[in-house]
Amino acid sequence: MSERPKDGAARPARTEEIGAIAGLAREARREALEYRGGERWMATEAAPEPLEDHLAGLIADPETVLVAGIWDDTVVGYGWAQRVVRLDGSPIARIEELFVTPEARSVGVGESLFDSLMQWARDQELVAIDAFVLPGHREAKNFFETFKMTAHALIVHTRLDQDQES
Questions:
Q1: Cα angle vertex 128, ends 24, 83, to 5°?
Q2: Rounded to 5 degrees, what are φ and ψ at 49?
Q3: What angle do CA 60, 63, 65 make, to 5 degrees?
Q4: Distance (Å, rounded) from C-alpha 142 to C-alpha 161?
Q5: Which of 13, 36, 63, 88 gives the lowest tally of CB atoms within 10 Å of its CB?
Q6: pTM for this structure?
Q7: Tens of pLDDT along the chain (166 residues)?
């Protein structure tokens, strides 16, 4: 069986693609729940519903970028990042979400999304780029490591409303 060509691409998201990207974001949330930390991320950090409104706000915000991942002329992934100023005053890009539907993985869409976010960060003259990865999502961690990104922090968590002895 021949390998599919790596012809995935990415570009700034268009307003008319918000519905498709919102659908992918919901798919990403369902997938996140399969991984350790996914429920916590959904409760504390995931972009809120209605996602269509949130995504429209990202397109309009000069401090953020929303990119669409394209394969076979179809939106199959998305990524968004925002400009954040650290306590030391240095501005960085923080990738808040990057997702490619499983059927379109390994064709270059994820790489194209990352490259687009990285280029945006460079164009904004930001000094670094961070990304959030669920601790149980090894595939995502490996993906970011291909870009020489390394873990710098872990968030530890325990529930207080459940029996601690189980």
A1: 55
A2: -80, 150
A3: 65
A4: 33
A5: 88
A6: 0.89
A7: 445 557 899 999 999 999 999 999 999 999 999 999 999 999 999 999 999 999 999 999 999 999 999 999 999 999 999 999 999 999 999 999 999 999 999 999 999 999 999 999 999 999 999 998 998 888 998 898 999 888 877 777 778 987 655 4
